[in-house]
Amino acid sequence: MIEGAKDHLKPQTLEQYRDLLAENQRDRRWKGVILTGAEITLRNDLPQLVEMARKSGFEQVRIQTHGMRLESADYCDRLVGAGVNEFFVSVAGSSRASHDAITAMPGAYEKMMKGLDYLERYPHLSVITNTVVTRLSYPLLPDIVTAMQHLTNLVQMEFWVYWPMSERDDKDLIAPHSAILPYLKRAITMNHERGLSVEVKNFPQCMLGEDEGVLLNDQPLLYIDEAFWPDFMRNGFEQCLYRSQCSSAQCLGLNTAYIEKFGWEQERLKPIT
What we know:
- By secondary structure, the protein is α/β, with parallel strands linked by helices.
- The protein has nine helices and six strands.
- The protein has a six-stranded parallel sheet with strand order 1-2-3-4-5-6.
């Protein structure tokens, strides 16, 4: 989603990170921190960053990753030993063929799965998967759930419907909500049958029916280069013909690129009252 933006965004500095940790050590404002950005495991000092967070009082330290570097057992051990207790891993496809094709990275699925399987030896860990729902991935959602069902420390699966950080879908990755819906609902049901939590982002809440409670568009406080926000605002969220009549506190409505491609969907949407 931020492929273009990340080329000009400046990372947070180590000094800014130390300031954040000092604030939390002083005020105990937060219990958890997420280390992310492009691919956080490319930082060789990641274990040290994790140790610093735990020493400053963070009870939960999550890393957000594509999971490829987790293929190394030694690296997994170092992260866990440093204090990582949540792994948020991007799962693009349901098999080696689909995952590697979508990520354009041969071997990505095998490396990710090797890491997830290795983390099974740490029962205290929480694993959360995230799948970006695009034209390429939405038919795979139930199969992705099946592919992950053997993981005993998997506690939640998230499905983030794609937005292009632009006014147009130049990559042709947005799928119509009506096409996504049956696969998404099946994936939600399969997770609930296993007792797992589900979060969905950027999907009309009114279309989810009895599953409307899984929509959660809240985000943690984000420390990022301020240059990110003008790009983000190009999405144009909160557009819906029924916005003035709808009481939903979570729905982001439609975005500009979706409306440009599929219209206002007035026959499929309805206000939540």
